[in-house]
User: Which sequence fits this backbone?
């Protein structure tokens, strides 16, 4: 989701007055541009003893005055000890950047499966498994994203979950289809359109010597026109060169379509990290791709947008070329067509260099570096993480206050230390007031006008905007969101995901006017299959809150609950939800995986476990269904209970074995776990398996919470079918307050 008007963590833009959030402030307010710079000496070692006066910052070639300077470090455990105590120096009365107090890291493992060979992906997965097992600090939050399907795993501390996400990565055949009868690669096409005579000559030579070619002597000739650097070869060769140039445009255009998708994903990753604190690192794993350098199709704007995304979010990209050591020898089949010896090998070297230079540009221009030419991919990734052990935070107010939307180039130099290398982000787009005005939100309704508080408005968000919000590779956590996704199967809908979320309204900014507090919260949820493809349309809801002081306090304390149900086929799905405060560019999100079993296999199965603090009464439903179908009542997504409560839980049991007399023998046991220990358990008891009008009824039981100390717990329910010795198991987390 693109949030206009503010620079989030990295560029702290002064926004409109809180009481008039829908207006664009008429006066120009200064912006604080924040950079983090890594400095290394001649041996590649981190330099940790520089001062403010050692740095020179230029924007579009003009010196800028530093308003803030600080040395930061992220060592093992996230303590910052590797760089020594933070050294901060702020001037002009400006507050230090938010990162001062947060040394932990957010790391995105971004696998470019649009541009990676099958074998290279296998090697990359091995390297990523080593990163998770050996190189991460205990408090590193890590997400896994692919360029083809987006998020595979959202930010988590759970190393086992990360390993499972990496194991699920699969190769995708994204090769650009070649024109019929052509051997031209995308890199060769780019070289041709850049005016490389050897690349064009080789393409033409292959066409002329291809068996059955229309360019052979005696065949009908293709009319030609003079082209730049026209060949001095034979008439068939000149005709073939003209066709090759035309083919090159089509081949490169198709390749750049995939490249644009990769650049867009990287940019989205960077922008989505803007609201989160801490050191933000993106490790891009790829075979490399093209951006049309030197051609009329060059993707300059897309590259600048990516750099802008890094600057605005305070993130850095490192790139790993997964091709490792690439031998470049001649292709005997091509050389045999009469091409001069060494021409094909030279073209291969140039092609590898083109795709590698794109990776280098993405990394260098965002403050990172490229690792290539090594088969030890894990060591390359380790170097990237270690590069963050010490870095300098620099911030300045741009001398150029024009809000014209133009790209501003940034340079950071060390005039006193010519032998040192400094790496940082290379620029950003200035705020564009014209675009801001066109995107400004509609006015907040007057008190008493519009929809009532927390009113639902399905479809209030445009589908394209909702998809963009859900496609953000990592959810922001500016607004705390708790999400649960549970499985149940009830007639007539069949298998369903019950989606519940709780949004913490206490973290909203609540602009005040006329003695009332107002906020507009947009919620959008979506379901995605195991390959990252959307299942059905987004589920949108808008809560417009216009509250008196007493109502505001209750709402801020209680939060906002969301509930939807989605009918799904058997399979594994990810549910995503994003909550956004419409006018103030504040957002939060969460994601959960859910497994929908296939009851057609006739194996013992059970629904998710539904919790409540009171005994469910007859007819209490949250899902509805056919006559007689009773759905369990569940606590909110927070699942919080008091020490004196009884914990009621309900489940459905599916596919029990039934003998010739129609009887079954199914028992269940419930256990309460704290950490790795079971602290309470019920006696095994029979499952009634009742129905009403042919529809199943839930099995209801309870566990006492009296005597439990406040904290997190887990309820585990085990169902055993003793007739066939089959077992089903579910667990659910809850909190005792």
Assistant:
């Amino acid at each position: 989701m693109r949030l206009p008007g503010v620079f989030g963590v990295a560029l702290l833009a002064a926004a409109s007055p809180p009481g008039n959030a829908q207006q664009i402030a008429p006066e120009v307010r200064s912006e604080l541009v924040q950079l983090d710079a890594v400095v290394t000496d001649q041996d590649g070692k981190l330099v940790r003893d520089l001062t403010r006066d050692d740095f020179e910052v230029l924007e579009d070639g003009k010196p800028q005055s530093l308003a803030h300077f600080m040395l930061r470090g992220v060592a093992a455990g996230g303590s910052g000890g590797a760089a020594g105590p933070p050294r901060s120096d702020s001037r002009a009365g400006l507050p230090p950047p938010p990162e001062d107090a947060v040394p932990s890291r957010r790391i995105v493992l971004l696998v470019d499966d649009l541009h990676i060979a099958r074998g290279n992906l296998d090697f990359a997965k091995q390297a990523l498994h080593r990163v998770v097992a050996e190189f991460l600090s205990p408090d590193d939050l890590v997400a896994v994203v692919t360029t083809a399907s987006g998020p595979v795993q959202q930010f988590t501390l759970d190393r086992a979950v990360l390993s499972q996400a990496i194991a699920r990565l699969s190769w995708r055949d994204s090769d650009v289809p070649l024109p019929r009868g052509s051997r031209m690669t995308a890199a060769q096409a780019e070289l041709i359109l850049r005016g490389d005579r050897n690349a064009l000559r080789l393409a033409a030579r292959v066409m002329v010597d291809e068996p059955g070619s229309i360019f052979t002597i005696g065949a009908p000739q293709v009319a030609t026109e003079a082209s730049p650097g026209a060949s001095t070869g034979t008439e068939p060769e000149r005709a073939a060169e003209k066709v090759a140039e035309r083919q090159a445009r089509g081949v490169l255009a198709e390749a750049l379509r995939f490249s644009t998708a990769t650049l867009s994903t990287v940019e989205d990753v960077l922008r989505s990290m803007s609201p989160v604190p801490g050191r933000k690192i993106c490790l891009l794993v790829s075979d490399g791709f093209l951006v049309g350098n030197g051609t009329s199709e060059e993707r300059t704007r897309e590259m600048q947008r990516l750099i802008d995304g890094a600057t605005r979010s305070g993130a850095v990209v490192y790139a790993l070329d997964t091709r490792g050591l690439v031998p470049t020898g001649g292709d005997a089949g091509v050389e045999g067509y009469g091409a001069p010896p060494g021409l094909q090998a030279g073209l291969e070297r140039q092609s590898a260099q083109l795709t590698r230079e794109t990776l280098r540009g993405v990394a260098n221009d965002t403050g990172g570096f490229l690792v290539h030419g090594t088969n030890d991919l894990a060591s390359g990734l380790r170097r990237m993480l270690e590069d963050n052990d010490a870095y300098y935070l620099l911030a300045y107010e741009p001398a150029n206050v024009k809000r014209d939307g133009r790209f501003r180039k940034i340079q950071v130099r060390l005039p006193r230390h010519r032998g040192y290398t400094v790496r940082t982000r290379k620029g950003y787009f200035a705020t564009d007031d014209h675009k801001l005005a066109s995107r400004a939100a509609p006015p907040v309704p007057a008190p008493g006008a519009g929809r009532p508080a927390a009113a639902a408005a399905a479809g209030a968000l445009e589908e394209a905007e909702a998809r963009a919000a859900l496609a953000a590779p990592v959810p922001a956590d500016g607004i705390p969101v708790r999400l649960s996704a549970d499985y149940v199967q009830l007639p007539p809908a069949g298998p369903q995901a019950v989606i519940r979320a709780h949004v913490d309204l206490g973290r909203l900014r609540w602009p005040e006017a006329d003695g009332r507090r107002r906020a507009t919260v947009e919620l959008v949820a979506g379901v995605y299959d195991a390959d990252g493809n959307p299942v059905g349309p987004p589920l949108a809801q808008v809560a417009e809150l216009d509250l008196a002081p007493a109502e505001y306090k209750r709402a801020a304390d209680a939060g906002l609950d969301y509930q939807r149900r989605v009918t799904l086929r058997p399979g594994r799905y990810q549910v995503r939800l994003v909550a956004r405060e419409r006018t103030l560019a504040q957002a939060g999100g969460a994601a959960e995986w859910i497994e929908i079993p296939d009851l057609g296999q006739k194996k013992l199965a059970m629904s998710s476990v539904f919790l409540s603090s009171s005994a469910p009464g007859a007819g209490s439903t949250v899902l509805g269904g056919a006559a007689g179908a009773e759905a369990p009542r569940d606590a909110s997504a927070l699942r919080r209970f008091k020490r004196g409560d009884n914990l009621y839980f309900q489940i459905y049991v599916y596919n029990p074995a039934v003998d010739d007399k129609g009887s079954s023998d199914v028992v269940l046991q419930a256990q309460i776990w704290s950490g790795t220990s079971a602290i309470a358990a019920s006696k095994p008891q029979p499952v009634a398996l009742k129905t009403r009008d042919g529809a199943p009824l839930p099995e209801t039981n309870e566990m006492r919470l009296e005597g439990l100390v406040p904290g997190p717990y887990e309820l585990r329910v085990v169902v055993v079918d003793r007739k066939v010795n089959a077992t089903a198991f579910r667990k659910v987390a809850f909190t005792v307050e």
Notes: The longest helix spans residues 235-272. The mean pLDDT is 79.
